[in-house]
Write a structure and sequence with these properties.
Elements lengths: L9 H17 L4 H10 L11 E3 L4 H7 L1 H11 L3 E4 L15 H10 L3 E5 L3 H6 L1 H11 L3 E4 L9 H20 L3 E5 L16 H8 L5 E6 H10 L5 H7 L6 E4 L1 E4 L7 E4 L8 H7 L7 E4 L14 H16 L1
Parallel strand pairs: 1-2, 1-10, 2-3, 4-5, 5-6, 6-7, 7-10
Antiparallel strand pairs: 8-9
Helix pairs in contact: 1-13, 2-13, 3-4, 8-9
Length: 322
C-alpha cells in the first residue's frame, strides 16, 4: 500500500477508535441471544468465515478517510467480503481520484475479496460492458443493482423488466460473472393491474435462473411482508437456493409508528427473526451474509461512528452464525 498516499494516519485512527469500538462491542445487546442462536443453527448455509459488508453502511468513512484506511480497519475487525456502492473517495486523499486497480491492490493487501457491487440500473442499460470491466478488475464474481426492476408496477412492466435483466444477465454470464437484483420493500407489492399478483413473483418467474440472480435484503423483505402480507421471505430462498448467492443482513426494531413496521438498527439490536430465518432457508447452497445499515453514519459518538456500528454488528453476526 506504500504507493497510495494517505492524508490520515491509520495508527492515529486506531488509537482514537479502538478503545471505544472494543468497549461498545463488549456491550453488544446480542449476549445470550447470540449464543442460543449458534446452538440452534448448527448447519447453516451462511458461512461465518465469509461475513461481508456493504460499504454504503460506512459511506462517510469511505469518503473522508479513503479506501486504504477503511479497508484496513474492516480487515482488522474480521470482515472478509466487500460489496461496493461506488468506487470513489475524497480527491483530497491522493490529490486525484483513486483508480480501480489501486482499490484491487488494497483489497489484496488486506486479504479482502470484492463480492459484488451496486450500480445504477441506468448504467446497466447504457454502460453494461464498462460495469462488467470494473467487476473483473476488482475480482468480484457478482455485479448488481439495488434499483427496482421497473417503475411500472404492472405485470407487463415487470415482465418487460425481466426481459431486460435476461439480456444483461446473459452478457454477465458470458464473462464469468453473475448479475443480481437487490430488493427493497416495493418489489413485494401487488401489481396495480392485477391485485392478486405479487410483483416479485412476476420478476422471479420470468427471469432466467441461468443468468439472473437475487440478493435478498432480509430487512426489506420483512418490511414487504408487513405491508403486503401473504409470503414468507425464507421460502423464496428455500425454494430456489442457488438463485440467492448474497444476502443483506440488516436488522430492524419493531415500531408501529413507522409505516414500514420497523426502524433500521444495528445488527443484534433489533427483533427481526434471524434465528428462524437462517434455520428455515435450509442447508442447500451457500449465501454470503453482508451487513448493511443505512443509518450507520448517524452513529454517535463519532469517531468512531459508523465503524463502531460495523464492529458491533460483525460481533453480533458472528454470534448468530456460530
Amino acid at each position: 500500500m506504500s504507493h497510495i498516499r494517505k492524508s490520515f494516519d491509520r495508527r492515529d485512527f486506531l488509537r482514537a477508535t479502538a478503545g471505544t469500538t472494543v468497549a461498545l462491542a463488549a456491550a453488544s445487546v446480542t449476549g445470550a441471544a447470540a449464543t442460543s442462536a449458534a446452538a440452534a443453527t448448527s448447519s447453516l448455509s451462511i458461512p461465518k468465515e465469509r461475513i461481508g459488508i456493504q460499504l454504503y453502511s460506512i459511506r462517510d468513512k469511505v469518503s473522508s478517510l479513503g479506501f486504504a484506511v477503511v479497508l484496513a480497519e474492516l480487515a482488522r475487525i474480521g470482515y472478509k467480503e466487500i460489496e461496493f456502492a461506488g468506487y470513489t473517495q475524497s480527491t483530497s486523499i491522493l490529490g486525484r481520484q483513486i483508480t480501480l486497480p489501486e482499490i484491487r491492490t488494497l483489497l489484496d493487501d488486506n486479504g479482502l475479496r470484492a463480492v459484488g457491487s451496486h450500480v445504477g440500473i441506468g448504467n446497466l442499460r447504457t454502460n453494461l460492458q464498462a460495469e462488467l470491466d470494473a467487476a473483473q478488475i476488482l475480482g468480484m464474481p457478482h455485479v448488481g443493482t439495488a434499483n427496482a426492476p421497473s417503475n411500472v408496477n404492472t405485470v407487463a412492466g415487470y415482465r418487460a423488466a425481466a426481459d431486460e435483466f435476461n439480456v444483461w444477465g446473459a452478457a454477465a454470464t458470458a464473462r464469468g460473472l453473475k448479475l443480481y437484483q437487490h430488493n427493497h420493500a416495493g418489489e413485494f407489492a401487488f401489481a396495480t393491474d392485477q391485485p392478486s399478483v405479487r410483483l416479485y413473483d412476476v420478476f422471479l418467474k420470468n427471469t432466467d435462473p441461468r443468468h439472473v440472480y437475487l440478493e435478498l435484503d432480509i430487512y426489506w423483505a420483512y418490511v414487504g411482508q408487513y405491508r403486503w402480507p401473504g409470503f414468507d421471505p425464507a421460502a423464496y430462498v428455500r425454494n430456489q437456493p442457488y438463485r440467492y448467492p448474497l444476502f443483506h443482513m440488516k436488522d430492524g426494531d419493531a415500531n408501529a409508528a413507522n409505516a414500514n413496521g420497523f426502524d433500521i438498527v444495528e445488527f443484534g439490536a433489533g427483533d427481526l427473526p434471524y434465528e428462524r430465518f437462517v434455520r428455515d432457508i435450509g442447508p442447500r447452497a451457500s449465501h454470503v451474509g453482508i451487513w448493511e445499515q443505512d443509518t450507520a453514519p448517524n452513529t454517535l459518538p463519532n469517531p468512531p461512528g459508523s465503524l463502531a456500528a460495523a464492529q458491533r454488528s460483525f460481533t453480533a453476526l458472528k454470534g448468530l452464525l456460530g
